[in-house]
Amino acid sequence: MKLTIDTAKCSGHARCYAVAPDVFDIDDLGYAMPIDREVTEPLDEDIAAGVAACPERAISVR
Ligand code: SF4
Fold first, then answer.
1. Ligand 1 pocket, residue 56 CB under 6 Å
2. Does residue 20's CB lie within 6 angstroms of at least one atom of ligand 1?
3. Which domain holds residue 56?
4. Which keywords does this Swiss-Prot/TrEMBL entry list (predicted)?
5. Distance from the alpha carbon of residue 56 to the mean position of ligand 1, in angstroms
6. Total domains, the chain
7. Sheet-wide strand order for 36-38
8. Could you tell me the CATH number of the domain that includes residue 48?
9. Which pLDDT score, from 0 to 100, does residue 8 have?
10. Fewer Cβ in 10 A, N or C end of the chain?
């Protein structure tokens, strides 16, 4: 499975970074930096927290 961020949906809330700074990174304006990486289930707690924290549903695991 892949963890990705749809940067077109990201609105710069920086919530993903706030809950999981080891997984997510943001730019100077609070927008998430692109991610495209393989992940396995069960999801790491930090990844799951970041997905749940995003109000724009910009973070996905498929
Ligand atoms: S929480 Fe969602 S909208 Fe906010 S910076 Fe992260 S990916 Fe973007």
1. yes
2. no
3. 2-61
4. 3Fe-4S, Electron transport, Iron, Iron-sulfur, Metal-binding, Transport
5. 7
6. 1
7. 36-38, 2-5, 59-61
8. 3.30.70.20
9. 96
10. C
Which pLDDT value is given to residue 30?
Answer: 95
Condensed to tens digits (0 to 9), the pLDDT of residues 25-41 reads 999 999 999 999 999 99
- Sequence letter at residue 34: P
What is the C-alpha to C-alpha distance for residues 60 and 4, in angstroms, rounded to an integer? 6
Q: How far apart, in Å, are the Cα atoms of 44 and each of 13, 26, 59?
A: 22, 19, 14
The phi-psi region of residue 28 (left if phi > 0; otherwise alpha if psi is between -120 and 50; otherwise beta) is alpha
Place of tokens 């970074």: 17
Q: Is the CB of 35 under 6 A from ligand 1?
A: no
